[in-house]
Task: structure prediction
Amino acid sequence: MMVRPYVVFGILLTQYLLANVIWAGSLGARDARSVISPRIAIVIDDLGYRYEPGELLATLPYPITMAVLPNAPYAFEIAELATDEGQELILHVPMETVHEGEWEEGLTTAMNATAFTNTINAMLDDFPHVVGINNHGGSMLTADRGRMYWVMKELAQRELYFLDSRTTSASTAIAAAQAFGVDHASRDVFLDHVQSDENIAAEFDRLRQIAREFGQAIGIGHPHPETIAQLRHQLPALIAEGFELTYCSKLLTRAPNKPTDYSRHHVQPIR
Ligand SMILES: [Zn+2]
Result:
């Protein structure tokens, strides 16, 4: 039987329209604006070694999710500044990597349950205004499902979210978060793996593509001068192009029936 081209086109068009209606419908209950405004969250981690970049990021007139290293010399000052300025604050928790030699004090696979739990609790107790955490390193630890359960157990109790930095494709963090009812998200793009204007701009374009395709995207960057310079240029451009900039907590996969208010520490409304 001959199938006429316009019939095939008609069927494809109908399927396309139907798929869009279903997609828009599934998002509609959560946030109807997603359909017209893809949302982007910028997370800057590794904060705390220098004061100045923290201050620059905290006072940018755009929502930035700021992740401080708990043991860094300016961690407390930057954490305070971030919350005072109404930015979102999360803790950048050091986790064991598969590489030797570049290790900071944090969570390791060698710790027993008590030492492990005490370590993460001490870090979280020091920063009462964080609304979530993401992993610094962690290519070893996030691949360890049992250790991730220990992490998620504490986060669930404190109603904190987990952002998986995705330092290994073997990460079990999201599955563990789901098991414990912890709200979670995964990093889509590392913005400044190579610190050149050209590369960072290309990574921002990748972030745009993902946000357009899926309705949202999360980019992680670091407090390098090149990154901050690009943020000043890219963030107003994203808004002009119709993207909505927001905090990481707005792009989480939420556990059912768990209405945690992550804006509890935002002293100002979202800018
Ligand atoms: Zn880091």
Observations:
- The longest strand covers residues 39-47.
- The two ends are 60 Å apart (CA to CA).
- The chain has two domains: 1-31, 37-265.
- The longest helix spans residues 5-31.
